[in-house]
Design brief:
This protein is an alpha+beta fold and about 100 residues long. It has one domain. The chain is about 50% helix and about 20% strand.
């Protein structure tokens, strides 16, 4: 399953469903698809997402320190989330809602 995020302020972003649902929940939403966040609620959602990403990266860094970097194809959650963070920032700047659907 793929989930597409859209707003009038930015190009659509499509992600694999599993990752997208994690990020939706990290923004403080229930994780339902389809869904939306109103413009007035986006600053809080973005801050929650960034806090989640910081926590995840701290956990990943600890794990990487203990193991070798065998998987060169690994893409960290913060890199996967960057397009969504940019979409949210653009939506906040232009006071637009964000929606997502399959």
């Amino acid at each position: 399953m793929l989930i597409t995020f859209e707003t009038k302020a930015y190009a659509n972003i499509t992600m694999f469903g599993e990752i997208a649902k994690k990020l939706i929940k990290a923004m403080g939403h229930s994780g339902t698809v389809p869904g939306a966040i109103q413009a007035k609620d986006l600053p809080k959602a973005l801050e929650q997402l960034k806090a989640y990403l910081r926590a995840q990266m701290a956990t990943v860094k600890d794990a990487q320190d203990k193991t070798s970097e065998d998987d060169e194809n690994y893409v960290s959650i913060d890199k996967r989330a960057m397009p969504l963070v940019e979409l949210l920032e653009a939506a906040i700047e232009q006071n637009e809602a964000v929606m997502w659907d399959e």
